[in-house]
Amino acid sequence: MRSARSSGLRAIPGGAAAGTAPARPAPGGPAQEFVKVDRVGMRFDIGGKAFTALDDVSLTLERGSFAAIIGPSGCGKSTLLRLIADILQPTAGSISIEGLPPAQARADRRIGFVFQEATLLPWRTVIDNIALPLEIVGARPGAGIYSPQSLLRLVGLEGFAQALPQQLSGGMQQRVAIARALVLQPDVLLMDEPFGALDEITRQKMNFELLRIWEETRTTALLVTHSIAEAVFMSDRVYVMSARPGRLEQVVPVDLPRPRTAAHMRTPGFAELVNTIRDALLRGEPQA
């Protein structure tokens, strides 16, 4: 059964959901543990040899929060995201989403996933790509489910409903992918470097867009990124991972006020957080 949050989201203009957004935990108040990763390990067998991708990783996400994972290439960031999404199963430890195993959360359509590539179907229009999950599960926009049209407005592509993916820029394609991930109103939105292939200017614009969308939906969000500045700008908390095998090197709380603006990037507090994360990444590198 879906959580009570399904009927408590703030309405998107023209959408089906009604009510107001659930309040985020007050600063300094009790944490509402929503996603829990408990001492998770992941090993693969490659050519008959054991390969450890993750080792003893623990983290928690509060309901309605925005967190980021950062670490060197190959440290298991994407693997961890796939474990939470039930695409892979851990070889050690456990994961829960509001007390449920990921398999149950996925079956209940509580998880949305945005990949590095937009992975849109090239023969389907923008609106039809957004509606694809509804068709797969045999659902129609109704109570508790955003309509594709309302999500099109939310991601700023209202005039592109009948466009094909090849007629869109990379940033616009990723907006469609985000809308598609939200159409079943997931409780958790997992994003695996969705802006990694974009130029710096477009990437920064997409950061603002994603935060605006998150403010509207208040979906619990977890972003994998290689950009320190992006991790700080977007997040309430940054999880810094070490080089392979991936371990949690440091948890960095981000106490910058919201809503975030470009002015926050020029503050001493922002620079200090960037330096803290950079130092943690260097500590997590293997020693020569």
Automatic annotation (TrEMBL):
Domain of life: Bacteria
Keyword terms: ATP-binding, Cell membrane, Membrane, Nucleotide-binding, Transport
The UniProt record lists the keyword Cytoplasm: no
Residue ranges that the Swiss-Prot or TrEMBL entry lists as coiled coil: none
Location of the region described as Disordered in the Swiss-Prot/TrEMBL record: 1-30
Biased composition (Low complexity): 11-23
Keyword Nucleotide-binding: yes
ABC transporter domain location: 35-268
PROSITE patterns the record matches: ABC_TRANSPORTER_1 (PS00211), ABC_TRANSPORTER_2 (PS50893)
Pfam families the record matches: ABC_tran
Annotated GO MF terms: ATP binding
Family: Belongs to the ABC transporter superfamily.
Entry protein name: ABC transporter ATP-binding protein
Source organism of this protein record: Pigmentiphaga soli
